[in-house]
Amino acid sequence: MSILKTLALSAVGLTFMTGAAFAADCKPSQWGADDEIGSANLVTPERTLAATKLIKQGKSVPLGIVIDSSTPAFPPRGLSLQVVQPNQQGGGRLFAYNGSYNDDLVQLWLGIGSQLDGLGHLGQDGMYYNCNDEKDFAALTGLKKMGTHNVPPLVGRGVVLNMAKHFGMESLPAGKFFTAADIQAASKAQGVEIREGDIVLFYTGWTDAKLESDPVAWASGEPGTSEDAAEWLASKNVMAVGADTWGVDVVPPEKEGRPFYGHVILLKEHGIYILETMNTGPLVRDGVTEFMFVLGQPRIRGTVQMIINPVALY
After folding, report:
1. SS3 126
2. pLDDT higher at 2 or 78
3. Cβ within 8 Å of residue 33, ≥6 positions away
4. Dihedral of the alpha carbons of 221, 224, 229, 231, in degrees to the nearest 10
5. Dist CA 66 CA 93 (whole Å)
């Protein structure tokens, strides 16, 4: 199934309940009716100090990928970069020492490459995290609530599970989903305990196998989590869920007409952040299962998503 067909299905699949039903069923967040940062409340001095003890080798690995104008992305997203030398046409110089400088201009969607999905990104029937109605907070000039600029530095214990290894494959194919039972089995086999406040990342091998060799295929589908996997991770009260795929949820979807429903479960229902296109391959190849995770994203007011480059320290 092409990604465009998936988009068409999403228009139908996410409208199966009425707004009245959502309003009636909506429950305030565990962090209070006015909360805007969800699971970021799990960042504490105690967890941060505990995470520092995971640094054994003094190594650091970037979890973000390099992006450019050719990086495939969820349509119609893209990037355009221009390097300019303002007011220096014809060899003009602006400084007494005959200096020159370059600046850069970029037009892009913030949901491209490695990214943080904020709590205002995906809801259902116009309702978002903590009973927020899109009519009240989603303005053209920026979100009035739940912008990613409000997210404090996400610091804590990161864990990575090798789901390709769990299934005995080098890389999982598009449409292959893993369930809560799969995650639990992989956790046990790989000696990884998932705890409250963790940043849970998955390795599927998808980006290593497809991003460079077949970028069209990479962006047209992906392996990923099932709906019950998202529910189980939420039950563990984790801080964030991410993978080496562009959407974390499986594409084509596990259930027809419900693409990216794990986003609804994690973002809307539980206030748990999603980390897309995380470069987990280097961690897996280095035998790392737990590490200190650090993310300080750019703080542009009112943004829905943000390009990021978290760091794994171990």
Report:
1. coil
2. 78
3. 130, 131
4. -50
5. 32
